[in-house]
Design a protein that fits this description.
- The chain is of the alpha+beta class and 70 residues long.
- Helices cover 29% and strands 24% of the residues.
- Strands 1-2 form a two-stranded antiparallel ribbon.
Length: 70
């Protein structure tokens, strides 16, 4: 069966991609939520093969701040 990601409140799904027989999901953690919180929630449901933290570039942070001012 497939995993219903809308049932989880600790994160927001940013992107989903199907790669061969695996699914790659990019998520954004909600405020106050740690990576471990999400892993504890997902490990009983799925096999996690890779996890990587995506850190925004200085340019992306600048654009977010300028956009928030308008």
């Amino acid at each position: 069966g497939s995993l219903n990601l809308s049932q989880y409140s600790n994160f927001e799904v940013i992107q989903e991609d199907i790669l061969d027989e695996t699914k790659e999901i990019t998520i954004k953690l909600n405020s106050g939520i740690s990576t471990n919180d999400v892993l504890l929630e997902l490990i009983p449901q799925v096999q996690i093969k890779h996890i990587e933290e995506v850190i925004p570039s200085i340019n992306e942070i600048f654009i977010q701040k300028v956009t928030a001012l308008n």
